[in-house]
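Box 3.1 — From sequence to structure: Glutamyl-tRNA(Gln) amidotransferase subunit A
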Amino acid sequence: MSDEIAFSDVRSLKRRLDAREITPSELVHVFADRIARFNALSHAFITVTGASAAVSAAKLTPEDLTRSSFAGIPYASKDLFDVEGVLTSAGSRVFHDQIATEDAFAIMQLRAAGALSMGKTNLHEFAYGATGENDVYGTCVNAYDPTRLAGGSSSGSAAAVAFGLVPAALGTDTGGSVRAPAALNGLVGLKPTIGRVPTSGVVPYCWTLDHVGLMTRTITDCADLLGIVAGYDPHDPASVNQPVDIYADHLGGGVRGLRVGIPENFYFERTDPEILGAVERVKSHLSKQGAKLIPVTFPDMEHSRTISLTVQMPEALSAHSAYLQERGELYGKDFRAGLALGQCLLAEHYVRAKRFIEQYRRQTNALFEDVDVILTPATPEIAQKLGAVNTIRDGVEEAVGNAITRFTTFFNMTGHPALTMPCGMHSEGLPVALQLVGRYFEESTILRAGHCLESNEDFAVPLPRIDGYVGTNVRNQVHHDG
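Predicted structure (token representation):
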């Protein structure tokens, strides 16, 4: 029964809570047991707060369980989110003593909704990297094959949900750091419109590109979770005062008449043929369901990654300048190298990159005059082996981290909402995924399209088979609250 609960979606767990077939305390016990069994393999959690979750669960009354769709539901958050009284390590030795004094906005919303925090999840140090490799807390592994990467930088959040340690998790997405690991682990990953979910109380990496993101098992759970964490915070300069939709109410609308943009450039190039085949089947299904497929052409992408990095590294350097002076020796080698790159970039480069980003936003907005959503593969490759440095496709060598986020990074610059979800299995036994992108603040539309696809069993992925795996990836430390 415990394994069945561990891999249940939130809606299913909520029905059992409402029917009093299980209590919040029992749910916490099930997931705490899963964490104890599989954290050494998955490396999902940096800090486990099962003791605090148990105390909170015991206090919930039947009336409390009616507060929201997540009342009584355990969840986890990437260890960039402040949770009052808990270490915020950011996956680094640098923040070994950073105990939060208050909740991040999204955590505050979940606490008010009656959700139960099981802990803080692992990540690439300070969110700098798409592989999720971490020398301090271990590198998260893929639930479908523990010899492969979970992806990053929200690697622990993806691993936590994929391994059945929690049914939902929060992450951050600066270049695909929620969507890519979700795609590699057979999950739903959503990057809402920039400003839709405030970043207050989240350790910054790049203010211009940072988004709070969500990982769940299903589209419905994602819609419910977005409805809780979305909102306006006047303390966050990027937050937008826009009404919050009841996203789940739109899921059953189907796709008839929906105009689906299919990129003619960049997004189907140098991609695993099996991923392309899966997306072709998705296109066919959407067409049969009444959607209209319309070709679209994106702006020249040749320098888009360079433009993104030209903004990322000076902003990261600005965020870390004080810590570099006081604790520079505690930074990992790769992040320290990135910060050094930030020191070499001129103000002229940064300003020019910001102007390019504004141009990308205008050009992408223009595409949405003719289409309602845009469909792309989520990643050009399946999850790569642990320790892999480069991948080769069509004779072109590419760094693994660049490949993982090649199709996601652009939409952090434009700020449009983007969703990744599974659409089948690769012959190597790993999930493949698609990406849906929508207009600003039209998360309901991409969720509705995703729900239509999720309803088709041809695009479903099996649960990972985890028991019997033996971890070889040694963790240095893990923190507990009790």
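Summary of the box: Confidence is low (pLDDT under 50) at residues 469-476.
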